[in-house]
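Hi everyone, sorry if this is the wrong subforum. Our group has a chain we'd like a structural model of before ordering constructs, and none of us has done structure prediction before. Sequence below.
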Amino acid sequence: MEYFYGMEREKGNAKWNWTITIIGLLLINQGFAQLNDKTWICGGTNSGKVIFNTPIDTVRFTPEIDCSYQWACISNSSGVFQFFTDGVNVYSYDGTPMVNGDSLADNSVNATFTHGLPDWQNVIVLPKSDSQYYIIYQSQSDTSFANDPWYYTNRLYYAIVDMSLKNGKGEVTVKRQLINSSFFMDGHFTACQHANGRDWWLVQRGYSSNRYFIYLVTPDAILYIRDQFIGADSNEPDAVGQSAFSPDGSKYASITGKSPLILLDFDRCEGIFSNPQKVIIPMDTFMFYGNQEIQGGGGDGLCFSPNNRFVYVNSLFILRQYDLQSNPIDSSEQVIFFWTDTNEAHGQFNQMHLGPDGKIYVAPFQGFTYALNVINHPDSAGLSCGFVKWGLPLPTNDASVIPNMVHFRMGALVGSGCDTLHTELREVHAEKEKLLKIYPNPATNLVTIDYGYTDWNMGGVSLELSNELGQVVYTQALPMYSGFQTVQLSSYPAGFYTASIRRKGSVVAAAKFAKQ
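Answer:
Right subforum, don't worry. Here is the predicted structure as tokens:
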């Protein structure tokens, strides 16, 4: 679908330019959505919100909301929280059940899993239009469930949420719309932006195999494009593990409980995998509270670094880092953290994801853990990555669940043959990139620099703070594909400061703020 080709240009430049501008802004809202991941829903029992502000806010829902294994959630492009779902139920931004938001899945699945789909990465939320969103989720037919309950999934559905309805609290307008039916791996459901910067490639794994189902998600439809057999097989238990794209969409990684780390290159124009690689995760034998544990050969979670160079993989007890620039990749293995008898019992590792601040957040496996683990500098090699056990406290007694998110700041692949939408609206995007938000303003000890409209495909950027005399007092290379950073100001005198975002020596965006 093209947004303005074929319109009557001869009716006047003024009308034409106005039309391009309005449509361009709509495209930015869809294809250049920057802050859709500002709020996360975390926690299994007594779930709550993690809002990436200064400092990070955590809010617990009252009355409490529980889920089995997973959440998917989304904010709008400006960072205003919209809704969340567990794949069976949909809740509005305030935790109240959404109108028509119950019983998304098949009847047997709904009745059995009242607190959401089991296992991780079975549901995902993607933008559809300015106020509409897709919920895409896996399920299992009643007949199949009666024989093999959730041993695999065999239905892929979508629902549509319209947040313009019910006074802004939203309504599920359609649900249980069939996209495809086959034998699917439960979980491992992820997506990345098409090279045009608007559409999405959705990837679903085949059951206990090396099969990948690839779909194109557009504002108008969800299309099953192809399936592809490539790379190593993934074997049971496939309910354990995670799949993810790199922040730039050029690579895809997947792992299960007893399978190697699978790495594939991805073509964002055509939606095709290539160059399969695998990394064997070592087996480790160790003592944990007097018992011998044998772990390895697979993993529970994985995540790419912002600069796309490192991939982090965790088993239940061990967090590892691999350098994708090494040859062979497994020679670069670094153990970042190891749960042993000397650590707390209620810890261990689960899924992980890259936050909008450029840090990686790792969920604990055990319940009764009140915090997420944090990798503060994931672009750094080895222990310099700055892992902190339980670095982000949460207002819940079970932090074991984080949402299934995607990288919203990927944008169009500049210069590619698919960069048609972005090319036509280059000037509009350039103007949008100049927007820089600073809060609070005036600030005291902490200030947040929100550069969420940065076009990362144009190159990396840095942050610079200068005082009233023009002297640079702070510089920082910003993590690729991040959206904001918090700066500590307690050591700086009161006065006026300028925050600048720079790329290759030139100022991309700038704004002033006061420090009290």
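For your construct planning: The mean pLDDT is 87. The two ends are 51 Å apart (CA to CA).
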